[in-house]
Specification:
By secondary structure, this protein is mostly helical. Helix content is 68%, strand content 0%. It is globular and about 45 Å long.
């Protein structure tokens, strides 16, 4: 554990419930996930924090997953939807970092992403969720196009797994800042 992550974990453990909830909601927009995480405090280590976060996420259901998905901007969009009760600035900043692969993408790629996002949302009823960190716009577009053919239940499970990856990365960012 780095000194920054130790300090971040201590800060999260000591934060008043409302402040801790806002921090957790910036990592995952599911209110039930954040509430259950609050109830698990204090966390003994970063590893324990991650273990609790992953276990709680797996125990939740589709309505919680959809709530978390709704806190994300669409791939290629520049603004984040604020997490309920969370920090819009933190979420927007993290989304921009995570989607940095779209920052210099060709206009044609961004247009294709927008069209594919619309088709995906029409088909599944929720936005395309992918752990975008380290992926180019072309890679994200290819993943979106590949996943749009999935059965709805399977796609919901894939999106939930991607949200789990995003949450893990964001928890690390939360502790490091």
């Amino acid at each position: 554990m780095t000194p920054d992550s130790r300090a971040g974990l201590e800060s999260l453990n000591a934060a008043p419930p409302q402040a801790a909830s806002e921090r957790l909601l910036a990592c995952c927009g599911s209110r039930r996930w954040a509430d259950r995480m609050l109830a698990e405090r204090p966390f003994a280590s970063v590893e324990a924090l991650h273990a609790h976060a992953e276990r709680i996420w797996r125990e939740l259901g589709p309505e919680d997953w959809l709530e978390a998905f709704a806190a994300h901007p669409k791939i290629g969009e520049r603004a984040a939807v604020p997490a309920p009760g969370g920090s819009a600035d933190r979420t927007a900043g993290w989304s921009a970092e995570e989607q940095s692969g779209t920052a210099n993408a060709a206009a044609a790629t961004i247009d294709r992403l927008a069209a594919a996002n619309r088709a995906y949302e029409e088909r599944f009823g929720f936005i395309f969720i992918v752990c975008a960190t380290g992926k180019s716009a072309a890679e994200m577009l290819a993943l979106l196009e590949a996943r749009i053919g999935n059965e709805p239940r399977r796609e919901l499970e894939i999106a939930a797994a991607e949200q789990g990856k995003i949450t893990r990365l964001r928890l690390d960012k939360l502790l490091a800042r």
